[in-house]
Amino acid sequence: MAKQNGVKIKIGNVNVTLRSQPQKGTISESKMRGAISKVLETQKATANK
Amino acid sequence: MARKQTPSDYDVQVFINCPFDTEYLPLLRAMAFVVKACGFVPRCALEVDDAAEVRVEKILRIIAECRLGIHDISRTQCSGKKRLPRFNMPFELGLFLGAAKLGGGQHGQKVALILDVERFRYQQFLSDIAGQDIKAHHGKPEMLVGIIRDWLNTRLGSQQVLPGKAALLKQYRLFQKKLPMMLKNLELKESEVSFVDWLKLIGLWLEAVAAVKS
Question: Chains A, B: CB contacts under 8 A, how many?
């Protein structure tokens, strides 16, 4: 079953709890986090130019 | 002051019943994105890859665990070499509505959102569902985001609020824009990402974007 204690974030001005999935995927979480942070870093670098 | 109630697992799980082909993928991704971003848990038959479990058993198990169900019955056209229509979506909608009506206990609280490309087209091929909540997405992912957000919003208690449509669309557009680069970094093609991994990627993306903003 899904975990109730998910990650709390803000979208717009509303707080949302992102609930975890009951199943595990095939791609590791660290790999996904790495791919995402690369994208965000590129975005930040472009914005700072 | 009234105590804020925490929704149960059952209350926040959303059964997604839709086509799983490449053509439908943008709509499925939009659906998964908005459900996840609104704090609900998307569930569907794609989440388990267990050959030992009979498909209908798997679907029934997931339906039993979900109070909410989103059913897209838009895929009515014939497909494949034999040019036959697919009946899985109307069948699973029937299972969901049957569980709601006859399942007893918490199943009586089940609520379905039925989607098609046009609002009244279903009358030509599935008239038995007249009286249900049927909405048209016209094949547009962004329209789907708004429809699902509004529908989920009506399922919440009066003390809870969902992000607004504009804020969700902004997040969705950003995710869509950055997706090719994310996939490139993961060395994956869109079709190689499983449903569960999509959900994980959407969740981690939302988390990372929120962290950058705060």
Answer: 116
User: In whole angstroms, how large is the CA radius of gyration of chain A?
Assistant: 15
Alpha-carbon span B125 to B89, nearest angstrom: 13
The upper half-sphere exposure of residue B77, i.e. CA atoms within 13 Å in the direction of its Cβ, equals 6
* A18–B65 CB contact, under 8 Å: no
Chain B, nearest residue to A14 by Cα: B163
Identify which of B210, B214, B211, B200 has the alpha carbon closest to the alpha carbon of residue B33: B200
ipTM (interface pTM): 0.87
Yes or no, beta carbons of A21 and B196 under 8 Å apart: yes
Q: Is domain B9-213 given the CATH code 3.30.420.140 in the classification?
A: no
B191: contact with A, CB 8 A cutoff: no
**Partner-chain residue, chosen from A6, A23, A36, that has the shortest CB–CB distance to B208:** A36
Sorted by where each begins, the domain ranges of chain B are 9-213
Q: Tens of pLDDT along B113-149?
A: 999 999 888 888 888 888 887 999 999 999 999 999 9
The amino acid present at B142, given as its one-letter code, is E
